[in-house]
Amino acid sequence: MFQRKIGKQIAILAVLIIFWASVQAMVGLGIINPYYELNLILIGINIILAVSLNLINGFNGQFSLGHAGFMAVGAYGAAIITLKTQLPFGLALLFGALLAGIFGILVGLPTLRLRGDYLAIATLGFGEIIRGVIVNIDYIGGAYGLSGIPKLTNWTLVFWLTVLTVIVIANFVNSTHGRATISIRENEIAAEAMGINTTKYKVMAFSIGSLFAGLAGGLHAHYFYTIQPGTFNFLKSFDILVMVVLGGQGSITGSIIAAVGLTILSAALQKLAALRLVIYALLLVIVMLFRPQGLMGTKEFSLKMFRRKTKDKEGKQHGTAIGQ
Predict the structure, then answer these.
(1) pTM of the entire structure?
(2) Pairwise CA distance, residues 137 & 76, whole Å
(3) If we measure between CA atoms, which residue out of 74, 5, 66 comes closest to residue 220?
(4) Of the candidates 76, 86, 87, which has an alpha carbon nearest to the alpha carbon of residue 139?
(5) For residue 200, which of 315, 60, 306 has the smallest C-alpha distance?
(6) Would you give the end-to-end CA distance of the chain in angstroms?
(7) 168 CB burial (10 A radius; 0-12, 13-18, 19+)
(8) Which listed site, 104, 238, 248, 271, has its alpha carbon 20 to 30 Å from 49?
(9) Do residues 211 and 100 make contact, with C-beta atoms less than 8 angstroms apart?
(10) What is the Cα–Cα distance from 6 to 10, expressed in whole angstroms?
């Protein structure tokens, strides 16, 4: 069993390396032009955002609408380090992520006592407060934003940090802490009755999700040269939420599939920017009507899923043949 698990992990790593090397080679040879490279970078950043929000909304059962605020904290924190102190990019990303994680703890401690719509309103308020504070600080550009940020984000960095994000959150979900987090989602009163410190695990999930949102913000800031407060408004939080709901609240692979699909859709609808939100809304309505649990529900993509479906299909065909 252990050897099979190790073999599976080695196979996944090999596939990831082959995929990364293939894309890197195509970028280097000019087969993938800057436009497609931009969309690959955005896909990676959106996967980090969707998976990290899914930890809060999907696995922990909370309802946060302030993810763009934590992204803004990470973006401005990382940009200040590279612009003002000239420290290495790695330290800037780490600082931005940790700063967003700290804000997650500070916001989570008082607000996570709330539930449902009240928590959504509180986190939405936090995101708008962050944006309002940034607008009024001239040191970081105020309403005009921060420009002249060095372009240090590249495909390799985004790809492997995306992989790291998925691994960390998947391992957290499958750990004892993750099981406690999921139990809060299923029934918070029962979890408290069993001795689980619900506030502790809520804040833990919230801070980890916020940390990775800050990481995504740092990557975003160092790819687009400039950042503005308007980039991190409510609509950005809504975009991330759509990815989580569409993919399935409680499914990491669902968030990845939705992030890839919606990023490609957004790129295709650039000429119809005014209709983008209308199409998003229609997409959500259709999903809620025909697949309310999302594309993946709470399941994860695996080869066993296909094997099970194939066996079930063969069993039905066999039963039909016998009946005839």
Answers:
(1) 0.90
(2) 11
(3) 74
(4) 76
(5) 60
(6) 41
(7) middle
(8) 271
(9) yes
(10) 6
